Amino acid sequence: MLKAFTAAFNAPEEAVSYPDVDTRKANHDKGLCMVEAYLDSEHGRMEELPLGVEVQLEEDLPEIPSPVLGYIDLVRPGNVPVDYKTCASTPDVQLEAFQHEVQLTLYQLLIESATDEKVEGRELVFLVKTKKPKIIVHRLPAATDQEKQRVLDIACAAVDGIYHERFHPQPGMHCAWCSYRAQCAKWTGGER
Ligand code: SF4
Fold first, then answer.
1. Does residue 141 have its Cβ closer than 6 Å to ligand 1?
2. What are the DSSP E strand ranges found in 88-133?
3. pLDDT at 121
4. Which atom, in ligand 1's list, is nearest to the CA of 178?
């Protein structure tokens, strides 16, 4: 695994530029530390065989007027979708679960639709980039029918907004990591 990490780091799918060789080495070493920490963790040492890795699923869910496409990092026995997240500091797992509700629940809906089987849970695995990397696993129960309906309603509202081009700015904390702030700042509401 460690060799595979270094090989992938040295031959990225898309070119990556670093300001200098020291930064490149620091990034490589930090990544290697993260992989080692994961391999040493209970999650990394699990002996069960995964049902799938990097699973691509695409379904026309009847409730959403547009296909849903998902790439699921890992599917564990019980059809449990797992998503890996990296973060700089120890996460508030309840907040993260709220923020990733749509993603995890759509994964559940995709798996249920593809297999006609139950999903027994949903899982987030955080690779925390602290000085000594930490691995935090947060298991959630499967979404209930009500929770699934909420996510479908959110998705329908989003698709409706895209179809009708409701692209007005909605400034908030999320602007801190938005790549489109310059374009957004020029938004005037239409033709003006
Ligand atoms: S800066 Fe980005 S996230 Fe913030 S309102 Fe504009 S488009 Fe949305």
1. no
2. 122-128
3. 98
4. 2
**Residue-range definition of the domain harbouring residue 29:** 1-40
Whole-number Å distance, alpha carbon 2 to ligand 1 midpoint, is: 38
Exposure string over 156-166, b if 16+ CB within 10 A, otherwise e: eeeeeeeeeee
Based on the fold, state whether residues 112 and 75 are members of the same structural domain.
yes
As a whole number of angstroms, the distance between CA 96 and CA 80 comes to 18
Q: Count up the domains in the chain and report the number.
A: 2
Which protein residue's CA is at the shortest distance from atom 4 of ligand 1?
Answer: 175
Is 80 exceeded by the pLDDT of residue 117? Answer: yes
Both tokens of 171, joined, read 């400034």
Q: Is residue 191 part of a domain?
A: no
Give the integer Cα–Cα distance in Å for 125 and 73: 10
Pair of tokens at residue 70: 């998902």
- Residues 21-70: pLDDT tens digits? 999 999 999 999 999 999 999 999 999 999 999 999 999 999 999 999 99
Amino acid letter, 97: A
Helix (H, G, I), strand (E, B) or coil at 49: coil
Q: What is the mean pLDDT of residues 145-164?
A: 96
Q: Please give the angle made by the CA atoms of 52, 58 and 62, to the nearest 5 degrees.
A: 130
User: What is the Cα–Cα distance from 39 to 135, expressed in whole angstroms?
Assistant: 10
Q: How many CB atoms lie within 10 A of CB 105?
A: 25
The answer to whether the CB of 178 is under 6 A from ligand 1 is: yes
pTM of the model: 0.88
